[in-house]
Structure formats: structure tokens, C-alpha cells
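Kindly go through the entry underneath: sequence plus C-alpha cells. Please state briefly how this chain folds according to its C-alpha cells.
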Amino acid sequence: MTDGRSWEGNWKMRLYERVRERGYDSLTAFAEARPTASLVALAEELGPDDIAGVQVFGGLLAEAERRKQVTRFVRGLLVRELSQRLPNGWPTVLDDDSRLKVAVALGTWFAHTPETHKERVDKAGDSLLATSPPPGWLPRGPDDELLLTLLPDEEA
């Protein structure tokens, strides 16, 4: 966790220098090599004292916007949330405890979704709750077949 130094100096340059030091030409490539890691985990890998998860988020979103791949970025956010909140995959039964975990994952996903995609994400979340995926389903990347069905690559 950072101690407040994340915003000191040219943090964007620092972020991209760290990415290049690890052999990647983009923040997206770095993140996609770790598709289930949280944004905080990515930040800690790049600089536990001076890179924050919100900076990684902003960089990934900016790259996605330039590449016209925001929908793919949004699917990737869900992969990261589900990996953190449901490490054993989609629950077999949506009892009170598991429904809460699913709701937190979907709610956090929605909260981090760019405004342009909120309506689509809301519908995708409703669809997941209405027709549960197979028990144990846990996407390992943004190109998961079910995720592509829920949020196809049509830029909003």
C-alpha cells in the first residue's frame, strides 16, 4: 500500500517506466499478463510505495480509449473483481452469503465502469443474476466466451 508518495513528481512517467523495466510496451500488456490480479496488486508489483491502483486504472482506461477497446477493458475489470471476490468461482447456490459476495463483485464492477458503459454493465449484471453461470465459472480473461456474450466488443 502506498504511503501518499504516489502523486509526487511525474507519476505517469514513473508508471510507464516501471512497465517498460518489466519488459512490456504498454500498461495493458503488463496487466493482461496478470488478468486475475486486482488493480491494487498490479500497482504494488509496479511500485509498492509510489504507485496506486487508481493510477493503474486510469492508465489502463486511457490506453483502452486510444485503442477503442473500452468494452474489453470493462470485461477485464469484471474478471479481476470475480477473481478477488469469488476465488472458487460462481457459487452453486445463491444463498444469502454467496448472493452478497456476488452483489459486491458486480457492484464494484459497476462503480469502476466508465459512464459510457454503465448501462450495458448494469444489464450484464442483471443477466448474471437472473441466469446464473455454471457453478464454479470463473473467467480467466476478458475474452471468456460468456463474457463476450454478455458484453460483445461494440464500443458504446
The longest helix spans residues 96-112. The two ends are 34 Å apart (CA to CA). Helices lie at 11-21, 27-32, 39-46, 53-67, 70-85, 96-112, 118-130, 145-150.
